[in-house]
Amino acid sequence: MAEAHQAVGLRPSLTSAGGEAELSAPVLQEIYLSGLRSWKRHLSRFWNDFLTGVFPASPLSWLFLFSAIQLAWFLQLDPSLGLMEKIKELLPDWGGQHHRLRGVLAAALFASCLWGALIFTLHIALRLLLSYHGWLLEPHGAMSSPTKTWLALVRIFSGRHPMLFSYQRSLPRQPVPAVQDTVRKVGQVPREGAGGGPGRAGGVTHPLLRLAPQYLESVKPVLSDEDFDWTAGLAQEFLKLQASLLQWYLRLKSWWASNYVSDWWEEFVYLRSRNSLMVNSNYYMMDFLYVTPTPVQAARAGNAVHALLLYRHRLNRQEILPTLLMGMRPLCSAQYEKIFNTTRIPGMQKDHIRHLRDSRHVAVFHRGRFFRVGTHSQSGLLSPRALEQQFQRILDDPSPACPHEEHLAALTAAPRDMWAQVRRSLKSRAKDALEAVEGAAFFVSLDSEPAGLTREDPAASLDAYAHALLAGRGHDRWFDKSFTLIVFSNGKLGLSVEHSWADCPISGHMWEFTLATECFHLGYSADGHCKGHPDPSLPQPQRLHWDLPDKIHPSISLALRGAKTLSGNIDCHVFPFSHFGKSFIKRCHLSSDSFIQMALQLAHFRDRGQFCLTYESTMTRLFLEGRTETVRSCTREACNFVRAMEDKEKTDPQCLALFRVAVDKHQALLKAAMSGQGVDRHLFGLYIVSQFLHLQSPFLDQVHSEQWQLATSQIPVQQIHLFDVHNYPDYVSSGGGFGPADDHGYGVSYIFMGDDTITFHISSKKSSTKTDSHRLGQHIEDALLDVAALFQEGQRLKRACRGLGEEDLGHRCGSLPCHARGSRAPTTSANF
Predict the structure, then answer these.
(1) How far apart are CA 232 and CA 177, in angstroms?
(2) Which residues form the Choline/carnitine acyltransferase domain (predicted)?
């Protein structure tokens, strides 16, 4: 989501004095350290590996194998072909009376070796199977015979009842694309068998590589002919002089480390960034849009915190099912490890992520004061009602904040170098309080103001809600924590998420579970409180006391001014588009994501009058420790479609034909990116190697100086089974958003809510005279209707929409949709 902004800031973070010093190490040493970090992570996961490393086998299968060998031995058969006798000879001679024991031990050792060999074979076979990506090319609803055979084999080798980390040892490593395929000129066909990239066999280029994106093709729509020729010249010079050397180092890293790009992406894009985390890096996630299960702030906090800790309990026990595409292809689960008990610690040159194995408290902020709230008693996890009691005690506590304590958290929104320096002084004087916050399971902010959709001013209230989640007041979030749970005074919820530790689908998965659990499973009593009874024996929440040295007071004031300036400059706009949703798009036999992306291209062109580089994030979790790749959605095909839509002489059938071509191109780019054949992560890796080698590359400098004026992301709905969208259509997540990647650009995210609503989250900078979030929102709505009108069903829809006034139609939050009124979930009350 917000990673586009961090990627833009990559070059400044590498050209600072600190960055230069760090990058003076030899590249081979850095590759060695990357592999060492990978192996350390593997060792730290030893217990998980013990539990899941035998998957898809089980300890019971070892017992079965051992029993079979013993039975064969009893029947005077030797399934080991003499190996057990050899093993017996190697065992110590304990005397004749232990001869039978030696036989049993020999059988057990042989069974263990055979069992381990079988498991290893299963893992290798499954890894080879999971390296096949031909299924990505299959049209929706159609499946070729090879793919059916592949699915059957995956089902056979995958075993039953997998745990969260069961597939980690079987996931393939992310391939390094051939550098010629990444950079090659427009229209140039890849040579058969050339390049040596993964996915080639027998001298035949993998079909995905024929569809793979090319850097030069991606920039042609946004460059003049003169600029494009200059860029193409730089690219050809790069391929001749530097590419092969840089590529060799990347391939070496891919053989040694778990992932050739992810650890560098985390370090250089996130942890080395010196900018404020607020707006620039963090992102937010919203509550239910139209309903609030209870207006009691402490009760909502109690249920939400309990639900989050239930999720952590399931995570620790690996009871969360691994995500499977098509119900069969597993995704990497490594990012789940750092959801809880995690803090980003600021440093002078780079930050680091601190993760604790466990934490039995949460840190709470309310009216400028910090508290430590225990989450467990001797009997286990506190009940929702007990947690509500603790939060209510904080709300009722009349004690004022100490001087400068109220604005202390603004330091986490300051530039990272400044915060790192101040933190040293803070740690020496207020170590216990700082440890209570940084060592918490997560951070909770009890806001004193209401938020969410209101009937009086729906549009403005949603915009203010998004702004409160993204930036708040600049001093009421601890932006270093993996996430902050925000509970508003009217019971509305939200998340502010730090980005470095994981990507949006991970926190989104947790958030879906939290909303469904706290609302549908935990529920509330008739008076809006958590179910159960208070526990008067619980100790009071611990107030944290900060001994703030005088020398940091100016820093706090400076950080607060900077945070308020940054917060005041962000323009957020949220609107639910309810004229149609994914059900209509499916009836058009199109990809929902590609449909929206092409509509965004049309909307942005109408807004700015020009095309721009477009950043769409997609996942690469098909591979071990994969994170994201960029889909460059502004293609020649998309531009041709947009120009046709703006040409009055073009007919609807002509525009529709160009639209389908653009959608097909976008799907090809998306699938190539998911399969590890994208452009941007490969170019990023080459650039980092060039920096380690102190090798100047004008081409790579040009690539990483690009500005992404349109950064986009779809918020996936991953656990639709947790929600009853037919009976309770309002009880679905409304997604989230992030800040713009460019000072004169937009950040746009969207989520499909049920079948008939799409919620958009738009952000831009108020300081820019070129952008306006509300204006783009209107263009997006018009573009969606215009694209839908290319289809017969959409024409009727557009005529109906245009024929109604905004007051009657209720679109763009002018009024509430019909289904928003009176929709109730079991044991809850719908409130605004």
Answers:
(1) 19
(2) 214-781
